[in-house]
Design goal:
The protein is of the alpha/beta class and 657 residues long. It is built from 21 helices and 22 strands. Helix 9 packs across helix 17. It is elongated, with a radius of gyration of 37 Å.
Length: 657
C-alpha cells in the first residue's frame, strides 16, 4: 500500500507540475507569437523610415544603405525585443492595459532608439567613418516602431472601450467611493468585465475632496455630501464603497441617501480577498453589521482556548441562537466533548447537521430534554459529568411572557435552579455561566424579572462557593436571532411592507451572535466567581433608524417604496434598556465590564423563590407584576419570610412596596 500511495502522490505532483508547465508554455507561445509579429513590424518600420528618408529631393540615398539596413535589422530587432522584455511588455492581457502599460511601451521603444543611436555612433567612431544607417533613419524608425507596437498592443483595448461605450446605456451606472488603488481596481475590472456595471465617476471621502483628479478614465466628482445630488443628476444605480473605513462611510451614506433610490455596496479589504480579480468578484451588498454605530468586536481567544482545552462543555438551550453558536465556537477549541441540550428537536436537529459536518461525532452529544424536568437534568449531569456549563436555555419573548408569566417562572427561574443544583452536585463541574439580558436591569417585564432572579441565584451561589466559579453575562439584542427585530423587518420588507415599529424613540443595544458568544467565552475564562459581566455593545440603536436602514439595504426608499408604521409599545416593552443600576467596573478584558449589584443572602433568596412559587401555585391573577416587584429590589424592604401569599392584603402591600 505504501508504494501505491507514494506512486499516487508522485502522479498527483506530476500532474500539478504538468499543468504548471502547460500554462507556462501557453504563455511563452503567446509571447513568442507577439515577438515574431513585432520583428516583422520593426523591419517594416525601419524600412519605411529609410524610404521616407529617400523621398528627400535635396539628398540622394545610396543604394548601399538598403543593404546595410538589411545587415543591421537583426540587431535592431534584438534591441527592440530585448527592451520590451526588460520593461516587462510581454505576458499581459492587453485588453486590460492601462496608462502604466502604455508608459512601459513608450519607454521600451525610446530606450531601444537611444541604444541604437549609441551603437551607430560607436560603430562610426571605432570601425568606419561612414554611418551604417543614417541617424535620422534610426530616430524615425524608433518612433514608427513605437506607433506600430502601440497599435498592435492596444487595438483590443480600444475596441473593448468602444464596445463598452456602445453598451453604456444598457449597464448599471455606478459611483465608486474612494480614490485609492482599490477604487481604481474596481473601476477597471468592473468596467471591462462582463458584469453589467459602468463607473461614471469617483467620490473622494476625505474632508477636502480633490476634484481635479481623473482615475481610470473617470473624474472625481465630489465628496460624500455630494452623493445624493450626483445620484439624481447622473442617474446612478449603485454606489460602491472601496476605501478605508468602509463601514463608517457606509453608515454615513445610508443616512445621506435615506431618501434617494440607489443601491449601496461595499468592497472588502483587498488584503483579505483571494484571487487576482477580487475587485470584481467580492463586491457585496452592505450588511446590517456594517450599519451598527461601532466597529466589530475583536477578541483574543488565547485564554478561551486554554480554558476549554480537554474539558467537557454542557450548553443548555444548545439549539437556540446563542446556544448553538456557543456549541459551534466551543468545538473550534480542543475541548473533549460538547453536550448540546435543548427541548426543541427541530433546533437540535438543525444544529447537529452543522456541527457534525465539521467535527467528528465523538466530540458532539445531543440531548433532547427540558430543564424544567429535574430528573432529566440530573440524568444528563450523571452521564456526561461536564466541567463547564453555559446556561442559555430560557424563554425570551417579552410580549408572549407577559401573557404567560407562569411559563417564564417555570423555565427561567425553576429551570435555572434545576441546572444550578445539578451543577453544584456534580463534582467535575468547576465553572457555570448564566446567559442573561439587559432587560434584567430594573425589570419592567416578567421576562426581565425572571432573568434578574436567575442572576441572584448565581450571585448567591458564588458567595459560598470555594471550588466552583459562578458568573452571569448580560447583553442586549442579538442581530438575526430567532424572533428578533431584524428577521422580522427582513420578512416585512420582502413582503412589501409595511415595516412596523412600536415607538419612534425606542432604542436597543445590538451585537452579532458571534461577537456575543466570543465575549461570553472570554468572560467565562476570566471569571473569578460572582461577577455579573456586562458586554460593551457601543451606543444603542434607534429601532426606527434600523428599520429605515434595512429598507435602504434592500435598495428601496422608506415611505416611498415601503411604509413604516408606528404600532405603540407592547406589554412589558420599554423605550430603552440600561446595562446596570450600579457603576460598572473594568475587568481584564477592555470590552467586558462588571456590575457588582447587591444580592440577598441565601436564606432571604430562598424566601423570594418560595413566594414566587406560592404565587405560581395559586395561579395568582397578578403573578407577573408581583414577580416584577419582587425582582426590583423590594426584598431589601420587606421580610418575605413572613409573607403569606394567600393573604390578599399582604400581597397588595408587597405590590405597593
Amino acid at each position: 500500500m505504501g508504494a501505491v500511495d507514494d506512486r499516487k502522490v508522485r502522479d498527483s505532483d506530476g500532474g500539478k507540475w504538468g499543468i504548471r508547465v502547460a500554462r507556462r508554455l501557453s504563455t511563452v507561445r503567446a509571447d513568442l507569437s507577439l515577438a515574431i509579429i513585432e520583428a516583422g513590424l520593426i523591419a517594416v518600420a525601419y524600412a519605411a523610415a529609410l524610404g521616407i528618408r529617400s523621398l528627400d529631393p535635396t539628398e540622394s540615398v545610396p543604394t548601399t544603405w538598403w543593404a546595410r539596413l538589411g545587415y543591421a535589422l537583426p540587431i535592431i530587432i534584438l534591441v527592440h525585443v530585448g527592451a520590451n522584455m526588460v520593461f516587462g511588455n510581454y505576458g499581459h492581457v492587453w485588453r486590460y492595459a492601462s496608462i502604466e502599460e502604455a508608459v512601459r511601451v513608450i519607454a521600451a521603444a525610446m530606450t531601444a532608439g537611444v541604444v541604437l543611436v549609441g551603437m551607430a555612433g560607436l560603430y562610426q567612431y571605432l570601425l568606419s567613418p561612414s554611418a551604417i544607417v543614417p541617424l535620422s533613419v534610426l530616430v524615425l524608425g524608433a518612433f514608427l516602431t513605437l506607433a506600430g507596437m502601440g497599435g498592435l498592443r492596444f487595438w483590443s483595448r480600444l475596441f473593448s472601450s468602444q464596445r463598452m461605450t456602445e453598451m453604456h446605456h444598457d449597464r448599471q451606472r455606478a459611483l465608486v467611493v474612494g480614490v485609492g488603488s482599490d477604487a481604481v481596481r474596481v473601476a477597471r475590472h468592473r468596467s471591462e468585465s462582463t458584469a453589467n456595471l459602468a463607473v461614471v465617476g469617483f467620490i473622494d471621502p476625505r474632508p477636502e475632496p480633490d476634484m481635479s483628479r481623473v482615475l481610470a478614465g473617470s473624474p472625481v466628482l465630489g465628496g460624500l455630501e455630494d452623493v445624493p445630488d450626483l445620484v439624481a443628476a447622473l442617474d446612478v444605480h449603485q454606489v460602491i464603497i472601496a476605501c478605508n473605513e468602509a463601514d463608517e462611510i457606509g453608515r454615513r451614506l445610508v443616512d445621506l441617501c435615506i431618501d434617494v433610490e440607489v443601491r449601496l455596496r461595499i468592497l472588502p479589504v483587498m488584503d483579505s480577498v483571494l484571487g487576482g480579480d477580487g475587485a470584481s468578484r467580492d463586491i457585496r451588498d452592505l450588511e446590517l453589521i456594517d450599519l451598527l454605530p461601532r466597529n466589530p468586536v475583536s477578541t483574543d481567544l488565547t485564554d478561551v482556548a486554554s480554558f476549554l482545552k480537554d474539558r467537557r462543555v454542557l450548553v443548555t438551550g444548545g439549539g437556540g441562537s446563542i446556544g448553538s453558536e456557543i456549541v459551534e465556537q466551543a468545538l473550534q477549541f480542543d475541548c473533549e466533548l460538547v453536550i448540546a441540550v435543548d427541548n426543541d428537536e427541530t433546533h437540535l436537529h438543525d444544529g447537529a447537521a452543522r456541527w457534525l459536518s465539521k467535527h467528528p461525532e465523538e466530540r458532539v452529544a445531543m440531548e433532547l430534554a427540558d430543564i424544567k424536568d429535574p430528573r432529566r437534568v440530573a440524568a444528563i449531569f450523571d452521564r456526561y459529568k461536564p466541567d463547564v456549563v453555559f446556561h442559555a436555555a430560557a424563554h425570551k419573548h417579552v410580549p408572549i411572557l407577559e401573557k404567560c408569566p407562569d411559563e417564564a417562572i417555570k423555565t427561567n427561574i425553576d429551570g435555572t435552579l434545576n441546572v444550578i443544583e445539578e451543577a453544584q452536585r456534580c463534582e467535575s463541574t468547576s465553572s457555570f455561566v448564566l446567559i442573561s439580558t439587559d432587560k434584567a436591569v430594573e425589570p419592567e417585564s416578567v421576562m426581565g424579572a425572571s432573568k434578574r432572579i436567575a442572576e441572584m441565584l448565581i450571585q448567591s451561589r458564588a458567595e459560598t462557593a470555594t471550588d466552583m466559579k459562578w458568573s452571569a453575562v448580560r447583553f442586549g439584542n442579538v442581530l438575526g436571532s430567532r424572533g428578533s427585530v431584524v428577521p422580522t423587518f427582513k420578512r416585512q420588507v420582502q413582503e412589501g411592507g409595511p415595516v412596523t415599529v412600536s415607538h419612534p424613540d425606542i432604542e436597543r443595544y445590538f451585537m452579532t451572535v458571534s461577537e456575543a458568544v466570543e465575549l461570553v467565552l472570554q468572560a467565562a475564562s476570566i471569571s473569578e466567581g460572582g461577577e455579573v459581566f456586562v458586554l460593551d455593545m457601543g451606543s444603542p440603536v434607534r429601532i426606527l433608524d434600523l428599520a429605515h436602514r434595512m429598507i435602504r439595504l434592500a435598495g428601496l426608499v422608506p415611505y416611498v417604496d415601503i411604509d413604516v408604521v408606528i404600532t405603540g409599545l407592547r406589554p412589558g416593552e420599554r423605550l430603552s434598556e440600561r446595562l446596570s443600576v450600579v457603576p460598572l467596573v473594568p475587568s481584564q478584558h477592555p470590552q467586558i465590564l462588571i456590575a457588582r449589584q447587591g444580592v440577598p443572602e441565601r436564606e432571604h433568596l430562598n424566601d423570594i423563590i418560595g413566594v414566587v412559587r406560592a404565587l405560581l401555585d395559586q395561579n395568582h391573577a397578578r403573578l407577573g407584576e408581583l414577580v416584577v416587584a419582587i425582582a426590583n429590589d423590594i426584598w431589601k424592604e420587606a421580610d418575605l419570610s413572613l409573607l403569606d401569599p394567600t393573604d390578599a392584603a399582604a400581597v397588595a402591600a408587597l405590590d405597593l412596596g
